[in-house]
Amino acid sequence: MIFAYARVSTKDQNLSLQEDALNKYGYDEIFKEKKSGMDTERPQLTKLLEKLRKGDTLLVWKLDRLGRSTKHVLEVAEQLEEKGVELVSLQDNIDTSTAMGKAMFRMLVVLNEMERDIISERTLAGLESARQRGRVGGRPKKNDKEVNKALKLYDSKEYTISEIVEMTKVSKATLYRKIKERDSLAQ
Q1: Is 16 helix (H, G, I), strand (E, B) or coil?
Q2: Could you state, in order of their start, the residue ranges of all structural domains in the chain?
């Protein structure tokens, strides 16, 4: 079976352009939604992905209709490949049922993987460079004096956690962590 998926980002936008193109190609059933690509909750796409079976085809007007980012689109497309479902994108001229379409799609996957690897390498190189110059990543350590003051205020039982945080500028997480550390040392 051929299943079509059409999506626009806002309620004000119209699905007609996509529907006309998808109708021209032909499909057995269509799933439509008006949701932002940034929205991870897309019930119609979820329902469609659950319905797809080996040998089916998913038809979209354009690949970006499937996801909020290249990474997300590729994740959906990889899901389809695992299920044995073909993918046809009209505007991107991709049809994974053909040798050329499959090759084109795999190139997109490889390029995405390479992009992730390059970002990771750059991040690691930047951290190493900073360490060599004596810089350490992460948030700056809180002043011990302020942390001790926060602990004393906490022990006094006169102030709420919110009041202590406001007075000392020590975060709730840091305060709770220090209390836990102190209590575990006392045992």
Answers
A1: helix
A2: 2-111, 144-186
Model pTM above 0.85: no
Adjacent-strand bridge partners of 70 = none
Catalytic residue (choose from 9, 69, 97, 120): 9
The answer to whether the CB of 153 falls within 8 A of the CB of 168 is yes
First to last CA, the chain: 66
Per CATH, the homologous superfamily of domain 2-111 is Resolvase, N-terminal catalytic domain (3.40.50.1390)
* Rounded Cα distance, 146 and 185, in Å: 20
Torsion angles phi and psi, residue 134, rounded to 5: 90, 5
Rounded to 5 degrees, φ, ψ at 175 are: -60, -50
Write the DSSP symbol of residue 64: G
Is position 156 annotated as part of the catalytic site?
no
Helix (H) / strand (E) element for 29: namely strand 29-34
| pLDDT average per 10 residues of sequence, the chain (187 residues) | 92 88 96 81 92 96 82 83 93 90 80 81 88 78 85 92 91 90 81
Q: What is the CA radius of gyration of the chain?
A: 26
What is the reported pLDDT for 32?
A: 95
